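Record passed on underneath.
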Amino acid sequence: MKLRQLVGLFLALAMIATACGSGSDGDSDSTATDTGSSDTTDTAADAEEPAAPAAGIDLDAIMGADLDNCAAAPSGDAIKVGMVMDFSEAAGFVDIPGSKLVPYVAELANCAGGINGQPVEVRVAEAGTDAALATQELIDWGAHFFVGPPFADATLPMQQTGDGQYAIFAAASTEPTLADADSNTFLVTFDDFGQSEASAEYALSQGLTRAIVFTEGEGVPYSGVNPDAFVAAFTAGGGEIVSTQTYAWFVDTDFSSQVNDIATVADGTEVVFSAAAAFQVTALRAQLEGQGLDGLTYMGTDAMDATGVQFETGGEGMIHTPHTIIAAGGANDMLFQQAIAAGVELDSLGFMPLYVDSMLLGIQGILDCGCTEPSGIAEAVKNISGFEGTSGTITYAGTNGIPDKAVPIAQVQGGENVLLTEIG
């Protein structure tokens, strides 16, 4: 994810794919078992259904729970999940629905009897302008670990407030510098290097050896770092960069100058790579095709998924790296449909499994250490290996907090994201 002010501008310009109405403002709807202050929302939380249930978490039972016919209520000491969420324009499009889905899954878990007889409680606090205060409120409540927002301006105060003792899962972030195992801060998905290196590997495997790259500049977070990583991997694999163009991320749609330059060097066999939003790439495509460059391949990052490339006119055939592909009838799809039917407002569905997995990973840390001390839980999280989550297999062991996780390579086919392969 990128600079906050640019994302805010994007949200005014781009339509994000939705399954239902988006969340509105601060508090999330919940059936909390615990009462908090006026700017917090409580709820109960736990798990979702992966391919192979993690030890101690009966995900099949949780997903099969009937809220109208629950098992006996769990009576052990509560597992407490703190969520410090950013409801601003910059991150609200993922944090708002994420903060609604996690409590709903918790409700399912408790309906199924809890985790080893323990209820799971979730409290949501809005970061607002003071993430440290929100974090302290949740520490005072007794949170065992945290699900946090995607930006460092909130996660760093969270780290400092908790003295680096609490596991923090930055659910929707791909920012490489945010992860820090020493401070117990973890990404839940691949980072920018992972997704762009995977894109380069896939392009080369398809015989694409010439590339056109769009960037905001070397080292610029997200819009520059992703192209940097792609270029490094593509050229190391024998590819050639035939043109490098600059643009304003989430702003530009007039690429006439860049297109005129590209037309002088392109032969129509190139791959065009950027971290641009879907509406930008489709605009670029139309302008390049206007110059007779009809055979180009377009590849991008998770920004394409966030901006609904499959719904864009001109998005057909575009290749990108979503966090998850929500297949009709699959476990995630069934969870989302069940939640929506229960009145949970969801948005940005491809990101939602990352929030569920954040909760599951913290619970797995508790089960693995057999403890409730935050530092012990965080230490156990560092050793998680082969965790089958709702967004894929996650390993933290031997990493600095960026999971060793496969990157899906998807293509828009017939208005849907179709998995081509996974790399990593």
Notes: DSSP finds 13 helices and 15 strands in the chain.
